[in-house]
Design brief:
The protein is mostly helical and 106 residues long. The chain has a domain of 74 residues. It is 58% helix and 0% strand. The chain contains five helices and no strands.
Length: 106
């Protein structure tokens, strides 16, 4: 009840009348909103640090805020599959076919 009425801002009637699914959905929404606010605060701080460093970066050298401080939530999903070009596929075939046994008849 502390979670529902305190952190999530539900009234006592809303809390007791909510199904478990409704309560879970509301809890997920509150969690996602808090996470978003925290990430935005970190991004603002990163941008501020980047601005402070601008006078000290060599001319012609570019540094973006994302390069200065990459965040875990901005990294690509490790589950994503990289599409290989035809040349990359041929290079891999050539690389791994060197040690591969040939088709020989027994």
């Amino acid at each position: 009840m502390e979670m529902g009425c305190g952190q999530m801002g539900m009234t006592i009637d809303e809390f007791w009348n909510a199904t478990p699914r409704e309560f879970f959905n509301k809890m997920q929404g509150v969690y996602e909103h808090q996470k978003f606010l925290q990430q935005e605060a970190w991004k603002r701080m990163r941008h501020f640090a980047w601005l402070l460093l601008q006078p000290y970066i060599e001319r012609g050298k570019e540094l973006t805020p994302e390069q200065l401080m990459p965040f875990e939530w901005e990294r690509p999903d490790p589950g994503e599959v990289k599409r290989l070009s035809r040349e990359e596929i041929e290079d891999l075939k050539h690389k791994y076919s060197k040690g591969a046994p040939t088709n020989r008849k027994i």
